[in-house]
């Protein structure tokens, strides 16, 4: 269960996360449907420490309290990152806000920051075009299959196709009952790949057949030869980035 605490948004002068404001030009390629400028994870500039006007960021305070698990010990986590000491750049219009305390709650599909009162500040992607955590860009895109916006990590991008990944969890609930041979809860991280073409999100099978379903046969053949000669795996993000970069070079 999660408890929502209503707040009045105003000028944020004291917050239990370290935040600075960044002004820079954004030379991006693509992004959320409302983003006309797009993504560029490598975009960096001089940081200017200032108080943040939180009215530029939509969000609420939550207390996450999952009653499903009770007193049963749990293996795994709903959080994507191992700890909270993650540097994130929030792209809000022409400004960039830098946060040093952030994580991603997979089950809720929300970015959150810890507060001193055991609650968390939950960021809403409304007004935020992208969030880059430890140089990993995340965006919100509409999923026609789910009928809602979902959060995706951008794995690779080129002029025509972009590869993104959506995270989810599988939960196996344990029991204190000794007759049930499952004494611990287990949370297992899962993910699915998608390609984005002209703003449309489509499932992608990260195998040779997956590329053949989205590429002309001649380019698919060239890509397979490139992957084989460079010993690239269709299962690794870094290798998939190289493949998409290669596709961009042969267009």
What is the topology?
Layout (H helix, E strand, L loop, with lengths): L1 E4 L5 E2 L6 E5 L23 E2 L3 E2 L5 E6 L9 E2 L12 E5 L2 E5 L3 E3 L4 E5 L5 E4 L6 E4 L2 E8 L4 E10 L4 E11 L12 E13 L2 E5 L3 H5 L4 H13 L7 H13 L2
Parallel strand pairs: 7-17
Antiparallel strand pairs: 1-6, 2-5, 3-4, 3-9, 6-12, 8-9, 8-13, 10-11, 11-12, 13-14, 14-15, 15-16, 16-17, 17-18
Helix pairs in contact: 2-3
DSSP helical segment count: 3
Radius of gyration: 20 Å
The main pleated sheet reads as: 11 strands, mixed
Structural class: mainly beta
Order of helices and strands: EEEEEEEEEEEEEEEEEEHHH
The overall average pLDDT, rounded, is 74
**Which descriptor suits the 3D outline?**
globular
Helicity range of the residues? 10-25%
Structural domain tally: 2
**Poorly predicted parts:** 1-55
* Alpha-carbon distance between the two ends: 50 Å
Oligomer: single chain
How many DSSP E strands?
18
Strand content: 35-45%
What would your notes on this structure say?
The radius of gyration is 20 Å and the shape is globular. With 251 residues, it is mainly β. It contains 3 helices and 18 strands. The chain folds into 2 domains: 2-204, no CATH class; 206-251, no CATH class. Helix 2 (217-229) crosses helix 3.
Features:
251 residues, five-stranded antiparallel sheet, mainly beta, globular, eleven-stranded mixed sheet, 2 domains
């Amino acid at each position: 269960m999660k408890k929502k605490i209503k707040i009045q948004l105003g000028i944020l002068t004291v917050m239990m996360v370290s935040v600075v404001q960044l002004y820079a030009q954004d030379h991006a390629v693509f992004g959320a449907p409302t983003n006309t400028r797009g993504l560029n994870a490598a975009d960096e500039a001089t940081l200017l420490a200032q108080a943040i006007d939180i009215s530029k960021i939509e969000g609420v305070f939550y207390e996450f309290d999952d009653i499903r698990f009770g007193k049963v010990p749990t293996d795994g986590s709903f959080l994507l990152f191992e700890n909270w000491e993650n540097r994130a750049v929030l792209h809000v219009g022409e400004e960039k806000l830098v946060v040093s305390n952030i994580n991603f709650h997979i089950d809720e599909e929300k970015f959150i920051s810890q507060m001193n009162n055991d609650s968390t500040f939950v960021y809403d992607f409304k007004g935020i075009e992208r969030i880059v955590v430890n140089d990993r860009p995340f965006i919100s895109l509409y999923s026609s299959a789910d009928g809602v916006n979902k959060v995706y990590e951008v794995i690779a991008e080129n002029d025509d196709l972009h590869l993104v990944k959506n995270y989810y969890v599988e939960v196996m609930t344990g029991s204190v009952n000794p007759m049930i041979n499952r004494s611990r809860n287990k949370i297992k991280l899962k993910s699915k790949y998608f390609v984005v073409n002209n703003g449309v999100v489509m499932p992608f099978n990260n195998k040779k057949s997956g590329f053949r379903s989205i590429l002309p046969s001649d380019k698919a053949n060239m890509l397979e030869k490139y992957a084989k000669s460079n010993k690239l795996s269709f299962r690794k993000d870094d290798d998939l980035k190289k493949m998409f970069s290669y596709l961009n070079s042969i267009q």
